[in-house]
């Protein structure tokens, strides 16, 4: 009887561990889908009510996604056109004149331009650094070498390092760390991100085996 209970418990736990990545992926994609498609739903509700059309929630979300993709495609065409660039530059000029909007828009614009220049990868290498205290290490990603202005202030050549939070690596802290205090890791950016997202459960070695097994 004890052996049967152990078998049932282990099988059930294995089922949970197998299904968990799929469930988390589903809820994550579902959350993104709702946020993206919900952007135009008020406009679709207004048009539908004026036209006397009744739409299901899924139909509204699907239509919103299609319209949003179409609008982004049109904006891309305009951005490639000479006169379109002039129009966009004019709107950007207006935005940077608004005190509160200026700082937010300029920061986001700089991040987008960084991703465009670097081909979508802003991280240069994965490193270990003593953070948040001595003898306690965190994974960090080098974004670039620190500017001469800041290097002169701290009298040391340094890195700009992004230390992400777990399990959401899109938020975190920017640290300026002297190069001599940084331990460079011989792993890929993807392996470092997997380590952060998994809260340390997937080590770089495990990530390497996972990659080789999926090929």
UniProtKB/TrEMBL annotation:
Record-annotated membrane-spanning stretches: 12-33, 53-79
Keywords: Membrane, Transmembrane, Transmembrane helix
Keyword Acetylation: no
Protein name (database record): DUF502 domain-containing protein
Source species: Flexistipes sinusarabici (strain ATCC 49648 / DSM 4947 / MAS 10)
